[in-house]
Amino acid sequence: MTDGAGEPVLELEGVGRRFGRRWVVEEVSFTVGRGEVCALLGPNGAGKTTTLRMILGLLAPHRGEIRIHGIPVRTRRAQALAEVGAIVEEARFYPYLTGMENVRQALRMRGLPADPDTVRARMAQAGLDGAAAERRVSGYSLGMRQRLALALALVQDPSILILDEPMNGLDPAGMRDFREHLRRLAAGGMTVLLSSHLLAEVEQVAHRLVFLERGRVTAVEAAGGGTQQLRLRVEPAAAAAAWLEARGRPVTADGDALRVAWEAEAVPDLVRELIGQGWAVYEVTPVRASLESRYLARTGGRREEDGDVVGALRQ
Which ranges carry the ABC transporter domain (predicted)? Predict the structure, then answer.
């Protein structure tokens, strides 16, 4: 199942990974376009972290292909990952150094220019500048540490950013700031792939959603998409409900109206058919399903397990 927008930056085709005899990721396929924020959603154990680690070349897929800017990660890892920044595990810092000194050291280790202007630019991208940049990391709050982790992920000026649960533990102000940073980066053309359980935050920042369940992609859709529900006020309501049910469209009551699932592009035809029956149509209102309801529908409403296989093997 593939989908994407704009120039393709990241492509997964039939990717699978097993541990022992168990396939924890099976036939995962999707595409992420330039300047797009794509969210990988699913319960623990669905294969999100395993998928991200395969994209980063930390795990080798047993089948399928992963390409970044058309370059296969499996056979040309260094070249494919040259423009990739990531926060996948807990970031490591030098606590006795300042934020600026940590970023400067990261630039030096990668053989990149570490002049003051470059250091400040990377920190500003992550929203960590001013007096905070000159403070020792040992005195940073969790939100400041997350911003520093983002600055470190941006040191090589990547075109794609991979983030695994980047907003965990942040307070509401920290989440808002991090969300705004991601929006600015995407607006500047950077591609962002993130996994998160914070659906309210995902709903505000993501352009595309990839739902995973038991290692398989169950849906790829626009963040504002999903199954459209219509609120219909039609008279006679009972006759209209029976007519819709006869066409295989389950109907539920919504006050003095009917609620039914219908494809957006087919709504004009539906209205014409209702009027053609001689019925009075007073209201046709699309009602977008919440991300929470879409998540539960796409993942079968399964409770989270104790973690995916990669997490278990680390212990």
Answer: 10-239
The one-letter amino acid at 65: E
Alpha carbon 235 to chain centroid distance? 42
The answer to whether the beta carbons of residues 31 and 55 sit under 8 Å apart is no
Indicate the number of domains in the chain.
Answer: 2
Q: Are residues 215 and 239 in the same domain?
A: no
| Same domain, residue pair 94 and 161 | yes
CA distances to 1, 40, 100, 222, 243 from 32, in Å:
12, 11, 32, 11, 41
Range of the domain at 84: 8-224
Task: Tally the residues of the chain.
Answer: 315
- The average pLDDT across 15-34 equals 93
- The pTM (predicted TM-score) of the whole model is 0.73
Boundary (domain end) residue, out of 224, 239, 269: 224
Tell me, yes or no, whether 196 lies in a domain: yes
How far is residue 292 from each of residues 213, 235, 298, 299, measured CA to CA in Å? 15, 32, 10, 11
Asked if the model's pLDDT at residue 237 lies above 50, the reply is yes
Distance in angstroms (rounded) separating the CA atoms of residues 172 and 156: 29
Residue showing tokens 């919504």? 254
